[in-house]
């Protein structure tokens, strides 16, 4: 499976060192690229590794084509990391928010903290 990782894909976190960004990301990027779960969809793989029950779809947000997380009346959130994994693109934001965007533009968003 082809995987491409880009830390700070929109160059919005240049005030943080690479180590600070990696520390903020925690374990989630490792779960995305875990080869033991390539036979599962990204959502299934994350749910299995999370271990705290199902992941629930949040509502009201929009993910732009550049991966910006937008929610009405809140400031935009920029991705700390973008990982392209097969047919899915994973974005991780501050506050434990993630988005999985499919090639058809559909998305699944939740909080994993």
Summary?
With 113 residues, the chain is of the alpha+beta class.
Description:
The protein is an alpha+beta fold and 113 residues long. It has one domain (3-111). It has 3 helices and 7 strands; from the N terminus they run βαααββββββ. Strands 1-4-5-6-7 form a 5-stranded antiparallel sheet. Strand 4 and strand 5 form a beta hairpin. The protein is globular.
Strand content: 25-35%
Tally of discrete structural domains = 1
Mean pLDDT: 95
Give the helix level as a range of percent. Answer: 10-25%
Largest sheet: 5 strands, antiparallel
Order of helices and strands: EHHHEEEEEE
Question: Using DSSP, what is the number of strands?
Answer: 7
Helix/strand/pairing class, anyone?
A: alpha+beta
* Weakly predicted, low-confidence segments: none
- How many distinct helices? 3
**Which shape, going by the Cα principal axes?**
globular
What is the topology, as strand order, of the major beta sheet? 1-4-5-6-7
Distance between the termini: 27 Å
Integer-rounded radius of gyration: 13 Å
